[in-house]
Specification:
By secondary structure, this protein is of the alpha+beta class. Among the domains are: 103 residues; 53 residues, no CATH class. The protein contains ten helices and ten strands. The longest helix has 72 residues. The protein starts with a helix and ends with a strand.
Length: 424
């Protein structure tokens, strides 16, 4: 390599390393929409859907280590809120398609429903959302088995508050789930869909009165439940259980309303947090990329300046002077690039800390909800599952009382929710 070539190369490397940031064009994602119903679905085939709170998926091995969780962009309180909010977004998507009966978000413990959807959060930031979803029907048929749904955010939703309200940045994820559920349903015959609804009702009855109603269902060789026989027309047991089931549906509707109110109150602040999170993560990613590039190429420039062989004869003073200047320039430029890379790594850490602080500030904005259940006011703070289990106990007592049996109510389990008299 000649001295002139080396000097020119060193200058170009230093200039490239110390130049400004490269802007990247962000293209909008193709929008996926839930498939809409084109005809009215017969009532006997209109399946109800229950969506359980998603599993927050906070790793137990680092659950108490805030620093490790933050490095993985997992903030437990945010995840708890998201487990309800994301389930509510899926509910809204299914409802908007007109393909289903009642679609509700429910706590664990709600088992007797036509189609039950559950899942867990694999990753959730302002930039990426990944969910694992499972769906089964009341006969035991699997519709979706631990399927991963993932998407980067549609940056167009972050352009303004109005855009964020108009379309969730991860709406494609929920639309894909809705369309996959529809595809699974369309594989069933009308008779199979009607049987799902009958099995749901008989499972509810068998849970309340196993001795009187348990023989109406049978499990086939495929492991799925089937209707063995139907109650006689006007059967008093069936009429009694139907009334209790209506009360149960009212309780589930009330809890679903809690989730809906929670999601509505959370939308603005969570949207702002997502938007800020997206911006900070983009900054962090750019900083890390620039840091890696500058550090590696800067080090290469320094090493090249040190180990480049002499190109001048001992007697050629001018040549040696130019060569020394070239080495000095490359060394200075390379060192500056390495230091710039280190600075970029520092910027990345600052941006990551900003994401954590944003999450912590949001945690204080998620407030508990109060719902009224059968004349009692309950303050729900994540114990909806416990409250529903208590309601199932009450419903069994109602059945036994209406059946004329004498029952001694068992002691109520310790509940984390605060109960007050609604008349106060």
């Amino acid at each position: 390599m000649s001295t002139r070539v080396f000097f020119s190369t060193a200058a170009l490397v230093a200039g490239a390393l110390l130049s400004g940031c490269v802007t990247r064009e962000v293209r909008p994602l193709e929008k996926i929409h839930p498939i809409q119903a084109q005809t009215q679905i017969p009532a006997a085939q209109l399946l109800d859907v229950a969506i359980r709170e998603l599993d927050a998926s906070v790793p137990q091995d680092i659950a108490g280590d805030e620093e490790k969780l933050a490095r993985r962009r997992i903030f437990p309180e945010i995840r708890k809120a998201e487990s309800r909010y994301l389930a509510s977004l899926l509910r809204s998507t299914l409802e908007s398609s007109g393909q289903w009966g009642a679609v509700r978000v429910v706590p664990a413990g709600v088992d007797f429903v036509d189609v039950l959807v559950s899942g867990r959060i694999l990753e959730s930031t302002g930039k990426v959302l990944a969910l694992e979803i499972t769906a089964t029907d009341s006969v035991g048929r699997t519709w979706i088995a631990h399927r991963r749904y993932e998407s980067v955010a549609d940056a167009g939703s972050y352009k303004s508050t109005e855009a964020l309200k108009a379309r969730d940045p991860f709406q494609n994820v929920f639309s894909r789930i809705a369309n996959d559920l529809l595809a699974a349903r369309e594989q069933l015959s009308p008779a199979a869909r009607e049987e799902i609804r009958r099995v749901t009702g008989l499972r509810f009855a068998a849970d309340l009165a196993p001795q009187a109603m348990g023989s109406y269902l049978a499990r086939g060789g495929d492991g799925q439940l089937h209707v063995a026989r139907l109650p006689a027309e006007g059967d008093p047991f069936e009429a009694r259980i139907s009334r209790i089931r209506e009360r149960d549906a009212g309780v589930i509707d009330t809890v679903n309303g809690y989730y809906a109110n929670f999601a509505e109150q959370m939308q603005n602040s969570y949207g702002a947090w997502r938007q800020a999170s997206y911006t900070e993560i983009e900054k962090e990613d750019r900083a890390r990329t620039q840091a890696r590039t500058r550090t590696i190429l800067g080090a290469a420039a320094v090493l090249g300046a040190i180990f480049v062989p002499d190109q001048c004869s001992p007697e050629d003073y001018n040549c040696r002077r130019v060569q020394s200047a070239a080495r000095t320039a490359a060394t200075v430029g390379g060192t500056a690039a390495v230091l710039s890379g280190i600075k970029k790594f520092s910027d990345a850490r600052v941006a990551g800390q900003a994401v954590k602080e944003l999450a912590e500030s949001f945690q204080g904005e998620v407030s508990p909800q109060v719902v009224d259940l059968e004349g009692r006011t309950l303050r729900l703070t994540g114990s909806a599952e416990e409250q529903y289990r208590e309601w199932r106990r009450i419903l069994r007592e109602l059945y036994l009382e209406e059946a004329g049996d004498v029952v001694t109510p068992p002691a109520a389990p310790a509940a984390r929710a605060t109960e007050t008299d609604a008349s106060r």
